[in-house]
Amino acid sequence: MGKAFTESERAAVLVKLRRTGLRLFAEKGIRGVSIRDLTAAAGIAQGGFYTFYADKDDFLADLFELRIREKLDELRKESRASQVDPPVFLTELFYREGMHLRGNRVFDNLESGTLAFYFDQGDSLHKRAASLYRAFLEELAELWRAGGYTVQMDMDGLINLIRSAGILITNARMLDESYFNRIYRLHCENGVRAFLKTEKPL
User: Fold this and answer.
1) CATH architecture for segment(s) 1-53
2) Domain segments of the chain: what residues?
3) Whole-prediction pTM value?
4) pLDDT above 60 (res 57)
5) What is the DSSP letter of 170?
């Protein structure tokens, strides 16, 4: 851009880029949005994008992590309800959130190349995502223990369940629509049953 951003301008432009990116990618998928499309929709010069990001993949990785953080913050507001039946709560949470992503074209692997993007990021993004999920699951486990439950949680198993759920969701179009919901629910139910054991003394 012609002039340097002030701190307040920088913060405002970054928010606008991120919100515009989330909307455009959800509507058009990863391959359907260029940096030119993004900056035009955000109302900034194309060069302004590079004040914040090295390239489109860098931007997408930031959005991916941002949405995990935002979604987990939203889910924390529901966590008290999990004390009624922790495994059922976690199963329904995984199922609901996964099915919600089906309307977002970023999570259509055939259209967006979602998995190629994710695995091209290497360990850094994977570890950051896993760390965020791990912290959320540990908070739930502590809440359940405080409510009188004994909790046995295979953390790595649950994080891999989240990853495998993502693989199923992004490839949903490869499966018969009439079976996908049932298959995905079974995946969530059986995964939670395998990796989480809770018991509350009478």
Assistant:
1) Orthogonal Bundle (1.10)
2) 1-53, 56-199
3) 0.90
4) yes
5) H
CA pair distance 202, 198, nearest whole angstrom: 13
pLDDT of res. 1: 43
**What integer pLDDT is reported at residue 4 of this predicted model?**
67
Tens-digit pLDDT profile for residues 93-151? 999 999 999 989 999 999 999 999 988 888 889 999 999 999 999 999 999 999 999 99
Does residue 88 surpass a pLDDT of 80? yes
Q: What is the dihedral of CA 31, 32, 37, 41, to 10 degrees?
A: -120
Q: In the beta sheet, which residues pair with residue 197?
A: 152
Q: Alpha-carbon dihedral of residues 155, 158, 160, 165, nearest 10 degrees?
A: -160
CA–CA gap between residue 136 and residue 193 (Å, rounded): 18
Q: Which residues neighbour 101 within 8 Å (Cβ) at sequence distance 6 or greater?
A: 107, 169
Given a contact cutoff of 8 angstroms between Cβ atoms, the answer to whether 62 and 53 are in contact is: yes
What lies within 8 Å, CB to CB, of 165 at 6+ separation is: 94, 98, 184, 187, 188, 191
